[in-house]
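Researcher: Please generate the 3D structure of the following complex. Treat every line as part of one assembly.
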Amino acid sequence: MTDPAAALADPLEPVPVLVGRPGDQALTASLTAPVLGPTRKGWLLLISVLMLGVGFWTLSLVTTLVVGIGAWGNNIPVAWAFDITTFVWWIGIGHAGTLISAILLLFQQKWRTSINRFSEAMTLFAVAMAGVYPIIHLGRPWFFWWLMPYPSTNQIWPNFKSALPWDVFAISTYATVSFLFWFMGLIPDLATLRDTAPTRAKRIVYGIFAFGWRGSARHWQHYRIGYLLMAGLGTPLVVSVHTIVSFDFAISQLPGWHTTIFPPYFVAGAIFSGFAMVLTLLIPARRLLGLEQVVTMKHLDNMAKVVLATGLMVTYGYAMEHFMAWYGGNRYEAFAFLNRWTGPYAPIWYVQLFCNVLVPQIFWFPAMRRNLVVLFVASVLVNVGMWAERFVIIAVSLSRDFIPSSWAMYTPTWVDWGLLFGSMCTFGVLFLLFLRFLPVIPIAEVKELRRELDHHDAGAAGHGAAAEVGP
Amino acid sequence: MSARAYVVAEFAAEAPLLAAARALRGRGLADLDLHSPVPLHGADEALGLKRSVVPRIALVLGLAGVATGYVMQWWMVGVDFPINVGGRPPQSAPAFIPITFELGILFAALGIFLGLFGLWGLPRLHHPVFEVEAFRSASVDGLWLSAAVEAAGVAAVAAELRALGARQVEIVEDGP
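Model: Done. Output below.
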């Protein structure tokens, strides 16, 4: 179960962020191999299976467009249910990518290097999936551009004092900036692919997307500062996005939503679920693509620690919500929380507590953080728990609001389930395409990391050892 | 326009590459560039590059985004078509903060991205250095120097680069 390299290492030595010191040619060869090599049967099989889910998703989307929102289980008072739950879930998952690529870059965490591209791609696809839900929930999604302020013949502007237009700006900015940041990082690697691809067709395609990058020192100078600034912008952006998503709820009057702890608690939950999703995807991918050398147990161990830390923050959020429901003295608020423990949807609340509060505690044990099976299962459970959390906040709070005569139960229809599972399959297909056609590990950045580690080794070995260079 | 050519030379290590750049620059050759798979420490000094203007672009566009965001909301829902929703005042500064912030970030990020392409002169799919087949290694592990020189001086620059320790030197005639 444990990584052979980690098992052989001296237990007192920290696990490395890069196994060995491969040269530039070796790194290029091993990191471009999944892209330039032949298509594998397993990949084809997996993508074919997932395409069935994409079909189900398409069917659910078309049904929603043709029939309308009535195809869903939504009702009044539960006007937001699977759609917004899944929207918040996907947006939250997206947050890990920007956290790893931006915040950890500013903190100079070396372990981010190998996994940033991977998690940024996850962010992009998660945000793409998330963006679908608010749009189809509009009722007449073909008028979605009415959300944008433009001088229309309606002669009316969006109401900027509502949290929902804030969401439009936050999500579209987040999607745009994440894409630009991801693409900027890709440019040098696309040039590497252009220069190493075996066939003329691949050279041309990668060459077009590399935009003529020639590794010029004059270009690198602007690139480095631009990349750093993008990280600097991404850091407050990622915090703002889930804060604004939480405003959709916190600004309202509904018991269970109307609380000031939502912004930090949503951001912590977003990072929690995002890191769990990175683990879920990374553990099989590093094995299948042979990336154990650059994505080591050190990365998985660190991510498990982040999951534990953010899990504790989320737990604090749950505790504080309950405290405020009691201390605030509002009987509707108190009832909303009693309803979670004893109401008709209580089993989902217990799933949430088990997955988000209990499961991460296993990561206090170093052996568990380095056990791939435990990591994988726990990461899946965390995402189940985070979906349950959003369902409990959104649908359960709505189903029992103020006056018992207005209460109603929510039951999802097959369209709701189709949109949920279909979006997961679509996300999977996009991710598999990414694994096949783009370098998953940032090649140039890993080369730079190796130089830094060489430099560090040389420094540690004393002044005379500076002549030591990679093979 | 007088004929120009590119002298393209590969070096085995960073130190001689940077030394060669300094030496050529000392002889008055200004149109020099280095090419490497990763950013090189000391390349900016060796080429005598000025500080990047990217931070200033980001600052100006970020502030422009903030101004656009606030003024847009102030005018649209406060002046042009005030709507009373929930009794909120027409000018409600706290409610305008989220979009103001997001547009500031969006403008700055677009400014950095497009500004970089402007500064780079990219997309430019063809460049004389790509004529050298071995130049492919510049994105893998190769360390290259390129110098644009007048046709008359090509032989001298090529000889000097060999003397400075270049592993191979190629000459590319710039197109008409």
